[in-house]
Amino acid sequence: MKTIQKLTLGLLAVVFVASWNTTFASNIFLDVESGSATHSGVITGTAQKIGAGTIVMSGANGSSLTSLEIDAGLVQFASTGNAGAQVKFGSDVPGGTTGNLEVLAAAVDTNSDGINDTVVANSVSLPVHVMVLSAQLKVGYGLTASLSSLTDTLTAAQRSAGARRTLTVAAQTAAEVAASGLSVGSAQPGVVLVAANMSASTTRLAVNSDATVQVGGAGASKLTSALHTINGTLELLTGASTGCVPGQTVIQSGGVLKVAASITVPQYNSTTDLFGTGTSDTLQFLSGSKLVLGAGSTWARNMAIGTAS
């Protein structure tokens, strides 16, 4: 195995599969051109991930890594890793690109058959996420992730013109059900697209002011089976399916439930109920909340403001 490590003007280049353990100061470029590399050291300062390859970060960086900018490829964090103080998707340079972030869960082969069959419960607190470009956060099976805040860099004028950054949340593999939840920080104009079935989780979901969580648009898109407190926007996309918003859902004062065009929202006891399991009334609108219905949509659910509806 051939490893090339070159440090020139803050540039660290890694070719093929490599592993290193060092401490850096100020700013550094982490370039994995192909394959996978592992970084188990602590980075002090800021770092930029470039190159099409994957870097696995397992160091206890804490706040010493003040910002990790992902401009290309994939950054993976093991259950023992620390993402630092801020993760930024993409570069502010015009025409820039972005990479993706994956948080893995540990697994154990309990019967020595070569298959990891026991998922070890882990909890990873992810730092502030800044979106310059749309990106994907992939959360491993059996892992609870809390996102401290999500903000995009669009101006008010760009947002009014319809521009949007989207952070897609997905399971580690399509075949696995993600036992994970996501908490979106307060007053951040970010958009989270739920692209996995997270209904096996009982982790609460908080959607705060100016944040949007979208459900549907992907076959297995389901929120967690816990309390969903909506102060921002919960948006049902065209692909929203039966039980896609399980658990109790409260649209708070100022919160919005947005229904895409041509969607039918039946009564709560319907076998095709989008909320809960179809056997209980789980949706509540508080005074000052808003229901937005798209063109051609049908709302058949009874609504009693301030009580379950």
Structural descriptors:
twelve-stranded parallel beta sheet; mainly beta; 30 strands; 1 helix
Can you put this structure into words, describing what you see?
The chain has 309 residues and is mainly beta. It contains one helix and 30 strands. It has one helix spanning 156-160, and strands spanning 6-8, 11-14, 18-20, 27-32, 36-39, 45-50, 54-57, 65-70, 74-77, 86-89, 100-103, 107-108, 118-119, 122-126, 128-131, 135-139, 143-147, 150-152, 167-171, 191-194, 205-207, 212-215, 228-230, 233-236, 249-251, 256-259, 264-265, 283-285, 290-293, 298-299. Strands 3-5-7-9-11-16-19-20-22-24-26-29 form a twelve-stranded parallel sheet, with no helix packed on it. An eight-stranded mixed sheet has the order 1-2-4-6-8-10-15-18, with no helix packed on it. A hairpin with a 2-residue loop joins strand 1 and strand 2. The longest helix has 5 residues, at 156-160. Residues 1-25 and 172-181 have low confidence and may be disordered.
Helix content: under 10%
Number of helices: 1
**Strand runs, count:** 30
Shape verdict:
elongated
Could you say which structural class the secondary elements and strand pairing correspond to? mainly beta
- In terms of DSSP E residues, the strand content is 35-45%
Poorly predicted ranges? 1-25, 172-181
Major β-sheet annotation: 12 strands, parallel
- Taking all Cα atoms into account, the compactness measure Rg is 21 Å
Query: What do the pLDDT scores average to?
Result: 76
The side-by-side strand order for the widest beta sheet comes to 3-5-7-9-11-16-19-20-22-24-26-29
The end-to-end distance, rounded to whole angstroms, is: 63 Å
